[in-house]
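Task card 7
Instruction: Convert sequence to C-alpha coordinates.
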Amino acid sequence: MPSQPEIVSALKSMVDPSRVLADPEDLITHAYDGTPNLNSTPAAIAQLVSTEEVSRVMRWANENGVPVVPRGSGTGLSGGSVPIQGGVVISLVRMNRILEIDEENLTVLAEPGVITEELAKAVAARGLFYPPDPGSMKISTIGGNVVENSGGLRCLKYGVTEDYVMGLEVVLPDGEVIWTGSKSKKDVAGYNLKKLFVSSEGTLGIITKVLLRLIPPPRATKTLLSFFPDMVSAGQAVAGIIAGKIIPCALEFLDNVTINCVEDHSHIGLPRDVGALLLIQTDGYPAQVDEEAVLIEKICKDNGATEVKVARTPEEGDQLAQARRMALASLARRKPTTILEDATVPRNKVPEMLAFIEAMRDKYRLEIGTFGHAGDGNLHPTCLTDERDKEEMERVEQCFDEIFRKAIELGGTVTGEHGVGCIKSKYLPLLVGEAGMKVMRRVKQIFDPNGILNPGKIFVDQPQEPVGA
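Output:
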Protein backbone atom coordinates (compact mmCIF):
# COMPACT_ATOMS: atom_id res chain seq x y z
CA MET A 1 0.00 0.00 0.00
CA PRO A 2 1.48 3.37 -0.95
CA SER A 3 2.47 5.76 1.83
CA GLN A 4 1.24 9.36 1.91
CA PRO A 5 4.43 10.73 0.24
CA GLU A 6 4.10 8.08 -2.49
CA ILE A 7 0.42 8.95 -3.03
CA VAL A 8 1.18 12.67 -3.27
CA SER A 9 4.09 12.07 -5.64
CA ALA A 10 2.00 9.85 -7.91
CA LEU A 11 -0.83 12.39 -8.07
CA LYS A 12 1.55 15.23 -8.91
CA SER A 13 2.91 13.17 -11.79
CA MET A 14 -0.60 12.78 -13.24
CA VAL A 15 -2.09 16.28 -12.82
CA ASP A 16 -0.93 19.86 -12.26
CA PRO A 17 1.00 19.70 -8.95
CA SER A 18 -0.63 22.95 -7.80
CA ARG A 19 -3.96 21.09 -7.69
CA VAL A 20 -2.67 18.34 -5.41
CA LEU A 21 -3.08 19.35 -1.76
CA ALA A 22 -1.40 17.57 1.15
CA ASP A 23 -0.72 20.21 3.81
CA PRO A 24 -2.54 19.46 7.10
CA GLU A 25 -4.56 22.70 6.96
CA ASP A 26 -5.84 21.72 3.49
CA LEU A 27 -6.58 18.12 4.40
CA ILE A 28 -8.70 19.05 7.42
CA THR A 29 -11.10 21.01 5.18
CA HIS A 30 -11.99 17.75 3.44
CA ALA A 31 -12.10 15.59 6.56
CA TYR A 32 -15.80 16.21 7.31
CA ASP A 33 -19.14 17.09 5.75
CA GLY A 34 -22.39 18.28 7.34
CA THR A 35 -22.58 15.21 9.59
CA PRO A 36 -21.91 15.99 13.27
CA ASN A 37 -19.21 14.23 15.24
CA LEU A 38 -17.55 12.63 12.20
CA ASN A 39 -14.21 13.42 10.61
CA SER A 40 -11.34 11.57 8.97
CA THR A 41 -8.38 13.09 7.17
CA PRO A 42 -7.38 11.94 3.66
CA ALA A 43 -3.81 11.40 2.50
CA ALA A 44 -4.25 13.92 -0.31
CA ILE A 45 -6.78 15.99 -2.24
CA ALA A 46 -6.74 16.04 -6.03
CA GLN A 47 -8.62 18.97 -7.57
CA LEU A 48 -9.43 17.60 -11.00
CA VAL A 49 -10.72 19.55 -13.99
CA SER A 50 -11.55 16.98 -16.69
CA THR A 51 -12.93 13.52 -17.32
CA GLU A 52 -9.50 12.50 -18.59
CA GLU A 53 -7.89 13.44 -15.28
CA VAL A 54 -10.52 11.56 -13.28
CA SER A 55 -9.99 8.50 -15.46
CA ARG A 56 -6.20 8.67 -15.08
CA VAL A 57 -6.33 8.97 -11.28
CA MET A 58 -8.93 6.21 -10.93
CA ARG A 59 -6.88 3.82 -13.06
CA TRP A 60 -3.83 4.41 -10.85
CA ALA A 61 -5.83 4.14 -7.61
CA ASN A 62 -7.44 0.87 -8.71
CA GLU A 63 -4.08 -0.64 -9.64
CA ASN A 64 -2.54 0.39 -6.33
CA GLY A 65 -5.45 -0.30 -3.97
CA VAL A 66 -5.85 3.32 -2.86
CA PRO A 67 -9.31 4.38 -1.59
CA VAL A 68 -10.91 7.26 -3.50
CA VAL A 69 -13.75 9.49 -2.27
CA PRO A 70 -15.45 11.81 -4.79
CA ARG A 71 -16.54 15.13 -3.31
CA GLY A 72 -18.44 18.25 -4.28
CA SER A 73 -19.26 20.97 -1.75
CA GLY A 74 -19.40 18.57 1.19
CA THR A 75 -22.91 19.49 2.35
CA GLY A 76 -23.97 15.87 2.92
CA LEU A 77 -25.57 14.75 6.18
CA SER A 78 -24.74 11.05 6.31
CA GLY A 79 -20.94 11.05 6.04
CA GLY A 80 -21.04 10.22 2.33
CA SER A 81 -18.07 12.39 1.37
CA VAL A 82 -15.96 11.79 4.49
CA PRO A 83 -12.80 9.75 3.70
CA ILE A 84 -13.23 7.35 6.62
CA GLN A 85 -10.58 5.01 5.21
CA GLY A 86 -8.17 7.76 4.18
CA GLY A 87 -6.79 7.65 0.66
CA VAL A 88 -7.49 10.32 -1.94
CA VAL A 89 -10.34 12.81 -2.10
CA ILE A 90 -11.15 13.72 -5.69
CA SER A 91 -12.58 17.23 -5.54
CA LEU A 92 -14.88 18.00 -8.47
CA VAL A 93 -15.71 21.63 -7.64
CA ARG A 94 -13.47 22.93 -10.46
CA MET A 95 -15.48 20.96 -13.00
CA ASN A 96 -18.14 23.65 -12.86
CA ARG A 97 -19.14 24.50 -16.42
CA ILE A 98 -22.64 24.52 -17.90
CA LEU A 99 -21.79 22.99 -21.26
CA GLU A 100 -25.09 23.38 -23.11
CA ILE A 101 -28.65 24.62 -22.65
CA ASP A 102 -30.72 23.01 -25.41
CA GLU A 103 -33.96 25.00 -25.71
CA GLU A 104 -35.33 22.75 -28.46
CA ASN A 105 -35.00 19.54 -26.48
CA LEU A 106 -35.45 21.18 -23.05
CA THR A 107 -32.20 19.85 -21.58
CA VAL A 108 -29.08 21.18 -19.90
CA LEU A 109 -25.67 19.49 -19.93
CA ALA A 110 -23.42 20.34 -16.99
CA GLU A 111 -20.30 19.24 -15.19
CA PRO A 112 -20.73 17.84 -11.66
CA GLY A 113 -19.28 20.87 -9.85
CA VAL A 114 -21.96 23.32 -11.01
CA ILE A 115 -23.80 24.83 -8.04
CA THR A 116 -27.48 23.85 -8.05
CA GLU A 117 -28.81 27.40 -7.70
CA GLU A 118 -26.51 28.70 -10.43
CA LEU A 119 -27.82 26.06 -12.83
CA ALA A 120 -31.42 26.93 -11.94
CA LYS A 121 -30.74 30.64 -12.57
CA ALA A 122 -28.97 29.96 -15.86
CA VAL A 123 -31.88 28.01 -17.31
CA ALA A 124 -34.43 30.47 -15.86
CA ALA A 125 -32.72 33.21 -17.88
CA ARG A 126 -33.73 31.19 -20.97
CA GLY A 127 -37.33 30.90 -19.79
CA LEU A 128 -36.93 27.33 -18.52
CA PHE A 129 -37.35 25.65 -15.14
CA TYR A 130 -35.23 23.13 -13.19
CA PRO A 131 -37.48 22.16 -10.24
CA PRO A 132 -35.27 20.21 -7.75
CA ASP A 133 -34.39 22.64 -4.96
CA PRO A 134 -32.55 21.01 -2.04
CA GLY A 135 -32.19 23.13 1.07
CA SER A 136 -28.47 23.45 0.38
CA MET A 137 -28.97 24.56 -3.24
CA LYS A 138 -26.97 27.77 -2.76
CA ILE A 139 -23.83 25.66 -2.24
CA SER A 140 -24.56 22.02 -3.17
CA THR A 141 -23.36 20.72 -6.54
CA ILE A 142 -25.28 18.96 -9.29
CA GLY A 143 -23.03 15.89 -9.07
CA GLY A 144 -23.71 15.60 -5.35
CA ASN A 145 -27.45 16.04 -5.99
CA VAL A 146 -27.38 13.13 -8.42
CA VAL A 147 -25.49 10.62 -6.28
CA GLU A 148 -27.64 11.48 -3.23
CA ASN A 149 -30.84 11.85 -5.27
CA SER A 150 -31.60 15.18 -3.60
CA GLY A 151 -35.14 16.41 -3.11
CA GLY A 152 -36.29 19.80 -1.87
CA LEU A 153 -39.36 21.88 -1.18
CA ARG A 154 -40.84 21.39 -4.65
CA CYS A 155 -40.38 17.62 -4.87
CA LEU A 156 -43.95 16.83 -3.78
CA LYS A 157 -45.29 18.01 -7.14
CA TYR A 158 -42.24 17.96 -9.36
CA GLY A 159 -40.24 14.98 -8.14
CA VAL A 160 -36.63 14.54 -7.04
CA THR A 161 -33.33 14.72 -8.91
CA GLU A 162 -33.61 11.28 -10.51
CA ASP A 163 -36.79 12.40 -12.29
CA TYR A 164 -34.71 14.91 -14.28
CA VAL A 165 -31.58 12.87 -15.05
CA MET A 166 -31.57 11.92 -18.75
CA GLY A 167 -27.93 10.99 -19.18
CA LEU A 168 -24.65 10.60 -17.32
CA GLU A 169 -20.98 10.38 -18.16
CA VAL A 170 -19.35 8.19 -15.52
CA VAL A 171 -15.77 7.16 -14.78
CA LEU A 172 -15.72 3.63 -13.38
CA PRO A 173 -13.30 2.51 -10.64
CA ASP A 174 -10.91 1.01 -13.22
CA GLY A 175 -10.76 4.31 -15.13
CA GLU A 176 -13.06 3.29 -17.98
CA VAL A 177 -15.49 6.01 -19.12
CA ILE A 178 -19.09 5.23 -20.05
CA TRP A 179 -22.10 7.28 -21.18
CA THR A 180 -25.60 6.16 -20.26
CA GLY A 181 -28.86 7.77 -21.40
CA SER A 182 -29.71 10.29 -24.12
CA LYS A 183 -31.80 13.33 -24.98
CA SER A 184 -34.57 11.07 -26.23
CA LYS A 185 -37.77 11.29 -24.25
CA LYS A 186 -38.17 7.53 -24.63
CA ASP A 187 -35.16 5.25 -24.19
CA VAL A 188 -35.59 1.67 -22.95
CA ALA A 189 -32.52 0.15 -24.58
CA GLY A 190 -30.87 -2.24 -22.13
CA TYR A 191 -30.56 -1.89 -18.37
CA ASN A 192 -31.29 1.58 -17.00
CA LEU A 193 -27.76 2.24 -15.75
CA LYS A 194 -28.30 5.94 -15.16
CA LYS A 195 -30.91 5.14 -12.53
CA LEU A 196 -28.41 2.84 -10.86
CA PHE A 197 -25.81 5.60 -10.53
CA VAL A 198 -28.42 7.98 -9.09
CA SER A 199 -28.48 7.42 -5.30
CA SER A 200 -25.26 5.37 -5.51
CA GLU A 201 -23.52 7.80 -3.09
CA GLY A 202 -20.27 7.72 -5.06
CA THR A 203 -19.74 3.98 -4.56
CA LEU A 204 -20.08 2.75 -8.16
CA GLY A 205 -18.50 5.46 -10.32
CA ILE A 206 -17.61 9.13 -10.50
CA ILE A 207 -20.03 11.29 -12.47
CA THR A 208 -18.29 13.77 -14.78
CA LYS A 209 -21.21 15.06 -16.90
CA VAL A 210 -24.94 15.29 -16.20
CA LEU A 211 -27.72 15.69 -18.77
CA LEU A 212 -30.85 17.07 -17.10
CA ARG A 213 -34.44 17.49 -18.25
CA LEU A 214 -36.02 20.96 -18.05
CA ILE A 215 -39.68 22.06 -18.12
CA PRO A 216 -41.56 25.32 -18.73
CA PRO A 217 -42.05 27.42 -15.57
CA PRO A 218 -45.49 27.70 -13.93
CA ARG A 219 -47.61 30.70 -14.92
CA ALA A 220 -48.67 31.60 -11.37
CA THR A 221 -47.85 30.75 -7.76
CA LYS A 222 -49.71 31.34 -4.49
CA THR A 223 -48.30 30.80 -0.99
CA LEU A 224 -50.32 30.10 2.16
CA LEU A 225 -49.31 29.92 5.82
CA SER A 226 -51.58 27.86 8.02
CA PHE A 227 -51.18 27.86 11.83
CA PHE A 228 -52.16 24.96 14.10
CA PRO A 229 -52.39 24.43 17.87
CA ASP A 230 -50.24 21.27 17.74
CA MET A 231 -48.14 19.06 15.46
CA VAL A 232 -50.70 16.29 15.10
CA SER A 233 -53.46 18.54 13.73
CA ALA A 234 -51.00 19.94 11.19
CA GLY A 235 -50.16 16.39 10.18
CA GLN A 236 -53.85 15.60 9.79
CA ALA A 237 -54.21 18.63 7.49
CA VAL A 238 -51.36 17.32 5.35
CA ALA A 239 -53.12 13.98 4.98
CA GLY A 240 -56.38 15.80 4.23
CA ILE A 241 -54.85 17.90 1.44
CA ILE A 242 -53.39 14.85 -0.29
CA ALA A 243 -56.59 12.84 0.22
CA GLY A 244 -58.42 15.77 -1.37
CA LYS A 245 -56.54 15.04 -4.64
CA ILE A 246 -54.54 18.26 -4.39
CA ILE A 247 -50.82 18.14 -5.07
CA PRO A 248 -49.28 21.48 -4.07
CA CYS A 249 -45.89 22.58 -5.32
CA ALA A 250 -44.69 22.61 -1.70
CA LEU A 251 -46.25 21.40 1.55
CA GLU A 252 -43.81 22.15 4.35
CA PHE A 253 -44.08 21.64 8.10
CA LEU A 254 -42.47 23.54 11.01
CA ASP A 255 -43.03 22.81 14.69
CA ASN A 256 -42.98 25.39 17.50
CA VAL A 257 -39.26 25.02 18.24
CA THR A 258 -38.38 25.57 14.58
CA ILE A 259 -40.82 28.46 14.21
CA ASN A 260 -39.20 30.33 17.07
CA CYS A 261 -35.68 29.69 15.79
CA VAL A 262 -36.64 30.89 12.30
CA GLU A 263 -38.30 33.99 13.74
CA ASP A 264 -35.20 34.73 15.85
CA HIS A 265 -33.12 34.51 12.69
CA SER A 266 -35.38 35.99 9.97
CA HIS A 267 -37.79 38.35 11.82
CA ILE A 268 -40.66 37.86 9.36
CA GLY A 269 -43.46 38.04 11.91
CA LEU A 270 -44.23 34.38 12.58
CA PRO A 271 -46.40 33.84 15.68
CA ARG A 272 -44.36 32.26 18.46
CA ASP A 273 -47.21 30.65 20.38
CA VAL A 274 -48.57 28.26 17.72
CA GLY A 275 -47.85 24.55 17.89
CA ALA A 276 -47.01 24.16 14.21
CA LEU A 277 -47.41 25.73 10.81
CA LEU A 278 -47.74 24.54 7.23
CA LEU A 279 -46.19 26.50 4.38
CA ILE A 280 -48.12 25.59 1.26
CA GLN A 281 -47.43 26.68 -2.31
CA THR A 282 -49.69 25.92 -5.23
CA ASP A 283 -48.67 26.75 -8.80
CA GLY A 284 -49.86 26.33 -12.38
CA TYR A 285 -52.40 28.28 -14.41
CA PRO A 286 -53.88 31.26 -12.49
CA ALA A 287 -57.44 29.89 -12.30
CA GLN A 288 -56.21 26.52 -11.06
CA VAL A 289 -53.99 28.20 -8.46
CA ASP A 290 -56.86 30.28 -7.10
CA GLU A 291 -59.19 27.27 -6.92
CA GLU A 292 -56.62 25.10 -5.13
CA ALA A 293 -55.82 27.86 -2.64
CA VAL A 294 -59.48 28.06 -1.61
CA LEU A 295 -59.73 24.30 -1.19
CA ILE A 296 -56.47 24.11 0.79
CA GLU A 297 -57.65 26.86 3.16
CA LYS A 298 -60.89 24.98 3.81
CA ILE A 299 -59.11 21.68 4.49
CA CYS A 300 -56.71 23.36 6.92
CA LYS A 301 -59.54 24.97 8.86
CA ASP A 302 -61.49 21.71 8.89
CA ASN A 303 -58.45 20.12 10.55
CA GLY A 304 -58.09 22.68 13.30
CA ALA A 305 -56.10 25.54 11.76
CA THR A 306 -56.45 28.65 13.91
CA GLU A 307 -55.54 30.98 11.04
CA VAL A 308 -54.65 30.79 7.34
CA LYS A 309 -52.74 33.63 5.70
CA VAL A 310 -52.30 34.06 1.96
CA ALA A 311 -49.24 35.89 0.63
CA ARG A 312 -50.29 39.06 -1.15
CA THR A 313 -47.60 38.92 -3.83
CA PRO A 314 -45.26 36.32 -5.36
CA GLU A 315 -42.36 38.19 -3.75
CA GLU A 316 -43.92 37.82 -0.30
CA GLY A 317 -44.45 34.14 -1.02
CA ASP A 318 -40.80 33.75 -1.99
CA GLN A 319 -39.78 35.44 1.27
CA LEU A 320 -41.83 32.96 3.28
CA ALA A 321 -40.38 30.03 1.36
CA GLN A 322 -36.88 31.38 1.93
CA ALA A 323 -37.57 31.49 5.67
CA ARG A 324 -38.44 27.78 5.49
CA ARG A 325 -35.14 27.13 3.70
CA MET A 326 -33.39 28.76 6.66
CA ALA A 327 -34.90 26.30 9.15
CA LEU A 328 -31.74 24.25 9.62
CA ALA A 329 -29.44 27.27 9.83
CA SER A 330 -31.81 28.87 12.34
CA LEU A 331 -31.93 25.75 14.53
CA ALA A 332 -28.16 25.38 14.37
CA ARG A 333 -27.73 28.68 16.24
CA ARG A 334 -29.36 27.27 19.37
CA LYS A 335 -26.79 24.66 20.47
CA PRO A 336 -23.19 23.72 19.54
CA THR A 337 -24.27 20.50 17.78
CA THR A 338 -27.21 20.07 15.41
CA ILE A 339 -28.20 16.55 14.36
CA LEU A 340 -30.58 16.64 11.41
CA GLU A 341 -32.28 13.41 10.34
CA ASP A 342 -34.80 12.51 7.65
CA ALA A 343 -37.10 9.70 8.71
CA THR A 344 -39.71 9.28 5.99
CA VAL A 345 -43.13 7.61 6.12
CA PRO A 346 -46.18 7.22 3.86
CA ARG A 347 -48.12 10.46 3.81
CA ASN A 348 -51.11 9.07 5.68
CA LYS A 349 -48.76 8.09 8.51
CA VAL A 350 -47.40 11.63 9.03
CA PRO A 351 -49.68 12.42 12.02
CA GLU A 352 -48.68 9.18 13.78
CA MET A 353 -44.98 9.78 13.08
CA LEU A 354 -45.14 13.35 14.36
CA ALA A 355 -46.82 12.16 17.56
CA PHE A 356 -44.12 9.51 17.99
CA ILE A 357 -41.30 12.03 17.52
CA GLU A 358 -42.92 14.21 20.16
CA ALA A 359 -43.14 11.24 22.54
CA MET A 360 -39.49 10.34 21.97
CA ARG A 361 -38.44 13.93 22.61
CA ASP A 362 -40.11 13.78 26.01
CA LYS A 363 -38.94 10.24 26.81
CA TYR A 364 -35.27 11.07 26.23
CA ARG A 365 -35.48 14.65 27.59
CA LEU A 366 -34.10 16.25 24.43
CA GLU A 367 -34.67 19.49 22.55
CA ILE A 368 -35.91 18.48 19.12
CA GLY A 369 -37.22 20.78 16.42
CA THR A 370 -39.09 19.05 13.60
CA PHE A 371 -39.62 20.43 10.13
CA GLY A 372 -39.64 18.98 6.65
CA HIS A 373 -41.42 18.07 3.47
CA ALA A 374 -44.59 16.86 5.12
CA GLY A 375 -46.41 16.51 1.81
CA ASP A 376 -44.25 13.54 0.86
CA GLY A 377 -43.79 12.23 4.41
CA ASN A 378 -40.16 13.35 4.62
CA LEU A 379 -39.71 14.65 8.17
CA HIS A 380 -36.58 16.22 9.64
CA PRO A 381 -36.47 15.73 13.42
CA THR A 382 -33.51 17.87 14.43
CA CYS A 383 -31.84 17.43 17.80
CA LEU A 384 -30.17 20.49 19.34
CA THR A 385 -27.41 19.19 21.58
CA ASP A 386 -23.70 19.32 22.41
CA GLU A 387 -21.48 16.46 21.30
CA ARG A 388 -19.19 17.13 24.27
CA ASP A 389 -21.98 15.92 26.58
CA LYS A 390 -21.42 12.17 26.22
CA GLU A 391 -24.39 11.17 28.37
CA GLU A 392 -26.80 13.31 26.34
CA MET A 393 -25.32 12.03 23.08
CA GLU A 394 -26.12 8.49 24.18
CA ARG A 395 -29.73 9.56 24.70
CA VAL A 396 -29.73 11.20 21.26
CA GLU A 397 -28.57 7.96 19.65
CA GLN A 398 -31.18 5.92 21.49
CA CYS A 399 -33.89 8.41 20.54
CA PHE A 400 -33.10 8.36 16.82
CA ASP A 401 -32.75 4.58 16.89
CA GLU A 402 -36.37 4.36 18.01
CA ILE A 403 -37.46 6.96 15.45
CA PHE A 404 -35.83 5.07 12.56
CA ARG A 405 -37.30 1.76 13.65
CA LYS A 406 -40.74 3.37 13.94
CA ALA A 407 -40.42 4.77 10.41
CA ILE A 408 -39.70 1.26 9.10
CA GLU A 409 -42.62 -0.15 11.13
CA LEU A 410 -44.95 2.41 9.51
CA GLY A 411 -43.87 1.33 6.04
CA GLY A 412 -41.37 4.15 5.59
CA THR A 413 -37.61 4.42 5.26
CA VAL A 414 -34.64 5.58 7.30
CA THR A 415 -33.65 8.22 4.74
CA GLY A 416 -35.72 10.13 2.21
CA GLU A 417 -32.98 12.31 0.76
CA HIS A 418 -29.82 12.42 2.92
CA GLY A 419 -28.53 9.00 1.94
CA VAL A 420 -27.21 6.04 3.92
CA GLY A 421 -23.51 6.95 3.97
CA CYS A 422 -21.74 5.49 6.96
CA ILE A 423 -24.20 6.85 9.53
CA LYS A 424 -27.28 4.78 8.63
CA SER A 425 -25.67 1.65 7.20
CA LYS A 426 -26.64 -0.36 10.28
CA TYR A 427 -30.32 0.32 9.57
CA LEU A 428 -30.28 -0.60 5.88
CA PRO A 429 -30.53 -4.39 6.46
CA LEU A 430 -33.63 -3.79 8.61
CA LEU A 431 -35.21 -2.02 5.65
CA VAL A 432 -34.24 -4.17 2.65
CA GLY A 433 -33.58 -7.54 4.27
CA GLU A 434 -30.75 -10.02 3.86
CA ALA A 435 -31.61 -10.80 0.24
CA GLY A 436 -31.69 -7.14 -0.66
CA MET A 437 -28.28 -6.58 0.92
CA LYS A 438 -26.84 -9.53 -1.05
CA VAL A 439 -28.04 -8.04 -4.32
CA MET A 440 -26.59 -4.62 -3.48
CA ARG A 441 -23.23 -6.16 -2.55
CA ARG A 442 -23.16 -8.07 -5.85
CA VAL A 443 -23.78 -4.84 -7.76
CA LYS A 444 -20.96 -3.14 -5.85
CA GLN A 445 -18.65 -6.10 -6.57
CA ILE A 446 -19.33 -5.93 -10.31
CA PHE A 447 -18.53 -2.23 -10.58
CA ASP A 448 -15.80 -2.02 -7.96
CA PRO A 449 -14.25 -5.47 -7.36
CA ASN A 450 -11.28 -3.99 -5.48
CA GLY A 451 -13.53 -1.94 -3.19
CA ILE A 452 -11.61 1.32 -3.63
CA LEU A 453 -14.47 3.73 -4.42
CA ASN A 454 -15.93 5.43 -1.34
CA PRO A 455 -15.36 2.40 0.90
CA GLY A 456 -17.26 2.06 4.16
CA LYS A 457 -20.43 3.66 2.79
CA ILE A 458 -23.89 2.05 2.51
CA PHE A 459 -22.63 -1.35 3.71
CA VAL A 460 -21.58 -2.23 7.25
CA ASP A 461 -17.91 -3.15 6.78
CA GLN A 462 -15.19 -4.09 9.19
CA PRO A 463 -13.24 -0.96 10.20
CA GLN A 464 -9.84 -0.56 8.57
CA GLU A 465 -6.83 1.60 9.24
CA PRO A 466 -6.94 4.77 7.11
CA VAL A 467 -4.72 4.52 4.04
CA GLY A 468 -1.87 7.03 3.75
CA ALA A 469 -2.62 8.64 7.12
